[in-house]
Amino acid sequence: MKKTITTLLLLLLSLRMTGQIDYLEPIKDYSKYKSELSGYYSNVLSLLSTGLSKKPYACYAVIPSFSPEYTVSAETKNGKYYLISNTLSQNSWQAEKSTIKVNTKSTEISKTLYQALGELLQMASNSGHGRLNNRTGWNDLLF
User: Fold this and answer.
1) Distant-in-sequence, close-in-space partners of 41: CB < 8 Å, separation ≥ 6
2) Distance CA 9, CA 4 (A)
3) Distance between CA atoms of 98 and 28, rounded to whole angstroms?
4) pLDDT band of 76, cuts 50, 70, 90
5) What is the DSSP letter of 4?
6) Is residue 8 helix, strand or coil?
7) I want to staple 113 with a disulfide (CB 3.0 to 4.6 A). Which of 23, 49, 50, 109 is the partner?
8) pLDDT-derived band of residue 41, with 50, 70 and 90 as boundaries?
9) Average pLDDT rounded to a whole number, residues 12-28
10) What is the DSSP-derived secondary structure letter of residue 128?
11) What's the chain's average pLDDT?
């Protein structure tokens, strides 16, 4: 009995959790959600894009389950290169939109770093492609 329990525990602990993946996965257009997720994505993405340009060179948003959402963007302003970070004061799923503040930090960066960030983000976003042998995934996206 002890051997069976130990084997089961080892097996369970050694298997990967099905909710974890090793690559970035794009989400559907949030306006296509018919449930409360549509409102959530609309609210959180509008808050995260506060003060950012409409078409940044490189930008990504991180939407964790239980901690504040944030976004990082590489942009140009007046011929200078900047890395801008917007972090919400609290998780927007658990708070009213009117109580959430956007904390913005910005730093000037070199053109080389600016271009490298764009290339890095492109590589990271492309790393998931082909994992399903160019089939349609569970979320109706073509990989």
Assistant:
1) 27, 30, 33
2) 9
3) 26
4) very high
5) H
6) helix
7) 109
8) confident
9) 57
10) T
11) 76
DSSP 10-69: HHHHHSPPTT--SS--PPPPGGG--SHHHHHHHHHHHHHTTT--SS-SEEEEE--SSS--
Tokens (6 digits) for 24: 């970035």
Q: pLDDT value at position 33?
A: 66
DSSP letters of 62-124? E--SSS--EEEEEEEETTEEEEEEEEESS-TTSS-GGG--EEEEEEEE-HHHHHHHHHHHHHH
Alpha-carbon dihedral sign for residues 15, 17, 20, 21: positive
CA distance 25 to 119: 17
Helix (H, G, I), strand (E, B) or coil at 133: coil
Q: What are phi and psi of 57, to 5 degrees?
A: -65, -45
Please tell me whether the overall predicted TM-score, pTM, comes out greater than 0.90 for this model. no
User: Using an 8 Å Cβ cutoff, are 82 and 44 in contact?
Assistant: no
| pLDDT given for residue 121 in this prediction | 81
pLDDT at 134: 47
- CA atoms of 49 and 92, how far apart (whole Å): 14
User: Which of the 8 DSSP states describes residue 140?
Assistant: S
